Amino acid sequence: xxxxxxxxxxxxxxxxxxxxxxxxxxxxxxxxxxxxxxTAGRMLVSSVHAQGVFRIAPDGALRRWSARNxxxxxxxxxADPPRRALWGAIGGARPGLVRFDLRSGRRxxxxxxxxxxxxxxxxxxxxxxxxxxxxxxxxxxxxxxxxASAMVRIASVPRGSFQGLAVSPDGTRLVFAxxxxxxxxxxxxxxxxxxLEAPADAxxxxxxxxxxxxxxxxxxxxxxxxxxxxxxxLDAGWTAIARVDVLARDAGMAEPTxxxxxxxxxxxxxxxxxxxxxxxxxxxTARPAPAVISRLPLTx
Length: 300
What we know:
It is built from no helices and 24 strands. By secondary structure, the chain is mostly beta strands. Strands 1-24-23-22 form a 4-stranded antiparallel sheet, with no helix packed on it. A 4-stranded antiparallel sheet has the order 2-3-4-5, with no helix packed on it. The protein starts with 19 loop residues before the first strand and ends with a strand. 47% of the residues are buried.
């Protein structure tokens, strides 16, 4: 996740609910970015600083879940239960994708990024098992086809800073957040790329995490003050944003990042520890305030 751009916006709207903290890590420099669940229903989180995927224990300690030979600065993670896989986006100077067995945490694939890639952050898995990953620095989106050993670039926007992304339920459209100017959509068959129209009063810059909730999107907006969680209602073709609802605003969130929809709730990283790290990914203190995982009820 790129922090070079911080946007101050005038915000409107009333929060529907406050996120409820579920758990928090110990006061250690972990830099939690994303979360998912394994086949046993255990919460998994990615760590940029400690490098890997971890399970949060009841006492707030992180137990390494991914194989010990898989130490990478992992940013976004996404589970693919039908194929028993957990995908992770490797950020930093040597971006790539790593796949783990969703049951055991064993590394099953490591795929280097194309030479033009600069910094992987978020990813999403399509219904066919294709993996889509965003490049926050280069303004690209890459696709790893099912069974492929190399990914290809499928979209680019000049000066783009791509973050969270989601695939439509039918697998035909990809929607992703550009931190600088809102949302873009890609027709996966034709390759046509266009910025999504949105309500005139919608403020959609500064969005980081994006996850699909049925036919809608849940977006974490951390590039605004105060941070927000939004529901985006899309049109039937996923070509425009018809409505924007504020689900939570501020509520103690600090550099919130991403999460997943589970059992009618949005479970997400509401405090990620980014405020305790510099752009070089070096912690500013040995004992930062804990990272916090929260849940937010999703009302119709």
